[in-house]
Design brief:
By secondary structure, the chain is α/β, with parallel strands linked by helices. The chain is built from eight helices and 14 strands. It folds into two domains: about 160 residues, Rossmann fold (3-Layer(aba) Sandwich), CATH 3.40.50.2020; about 140 residues, Rossmann fold, CATH 3.40.50.2020.
Length: about 325
């Protein structure tokens, strides 16, 4: 695809993702720059004319999240001040989607504030994937196109035809999406009984609802941060008689210590997508990435051509 009036820019968070998008679209990401002054202030500049062009800014919210968020906001503002056409923020991983409500006294609803910041900067549309809290879409007054990695991950496991497979949800909150995943694989579902205490990035799985004895288990989730709850669930599955254990998740944050935990766990393989970069220090034989850039590229093409994005999921409707 060659778009005469499209500009594609890559933020510094995940330039490889933007490069792959460009390959699928027949485009080379346009030049831009971002750097910090010695006082910590961030400087951002786009390197080409955008007057009248439809602009797609690719920036995932990987650590350091706030730096990458401010870079995206400044990029949006720079495009708007240069008289661009519509600006779409392509945010493969929307980090603050976990903060969607006031669930205790005197806290900020951070997911809403981020939406306000992006709109104040001038964004016209957001393209993202597997929001931890889908209601984040309602925080925006601008359109939000919400993609799902589930068909990509399910196809990866379906191609391997693992026998006696049971899809395992980490908790009740993810059960509907796990059930949908199981339908794509024609398998049964089990659910973990998980307890989380305070704000610690760890949870304890107490038991399994469902029979996994003698089965191969596939744990599915949207995000892997510290990996503690995933490992805890895997250990309970072994205790309950499961054989080989796999895991699949859209966003592999893999914070400090996560790779080591997964390496020492009974999990045979962890499959994640490339919504977040996987630097060399996080490489491990147990961890494998599959790319969702073809899906994002097709969504961008459809947005540019003013076609339906939901059409992408007519064969695999998103979970309720």
């Amino acid at each position: 695809m060659i778009a005469k009036r499209m500009r594609l820019f890559a933020g510094t968070a995940h330039p490889e993702f933007a490069r792959k998008l460009g390959e699928h679209l027949g485009l080379t990401p346009d030049p831009s720059e971002a750097f910090h002054f010695t006082d910590g202030n961030l400087f951002v500049k786009i390197g080409v004319n955008v007057r009248g062009y439809e602009v797609f800014l690719v920036q995932t919210l990987s650590p350091p999240v706030n730096d990458h968020l401010m870079e995206l906001i400044f990029l949006i503002d720079a495009c708007k001040r240069a008289s661009s056409g519509p600006v779409t923020a392509v945010i493969p991983y929307y980090s603050y989607a976990l903060a969607d409500k006031k669930d205790e006294p005197r806290v900020s609803i951070r997911g809403r504030i981020i939406a306000d910041l992006l709109e104040t900067a001038g964004v016209d549309r957001v393209l993202t994937m597997d929001l931890h809290s889908p209601q984040i879409q309602g925080f925006f007054r601008k359109p939000v196109d919400h993609l799902y990695a589930m068909p990509v991950l399910a196809e990866d496991f379906r191609a391997r035809a693992i026998p006696d497979l049971v899809v395992v949800s980490p908790d009740m909150g993810f059960a509907k999406r796990a059930r949908h995943f199981a339908l794509l694989l024609d398998s049964l579902v089990a659910i973990g009984d998980k307890v989380r205490r305070g704000h610690e990035e760890r949870a304890e799985v107490l038991s399994i609802v469902g029979d996994v004895r003698g089965c191969n288990a596939l744990i599915v989730d949207d995000i892997i941060v510290s990996g503690t709850s995933l490992v805890s669930l895997a250990e309970v599955l072994v205790r309950e008689g499961a054989k080989e254990i796999y895991a699949a998740a859209t966003h592999g944050v893999l914070s400090e210590g996560a790779v080591e935990r997964l390496a020492a766990s009974p999990i045979k393989e962890v499959v994640i997508t490339d919504t977040l970069p996987l630097p060399p220090e996080k490489h491990h034989p147990k961890i494998r990435q599959v790319s969702v850039t073809p899906l994002f590229a097709e969504a961008i093409r459809r947005i540019y051509e003013e076609e339906s994005v939901s059409f992408l999921f007519q064969d695999h409707p998103p979970p309720p």
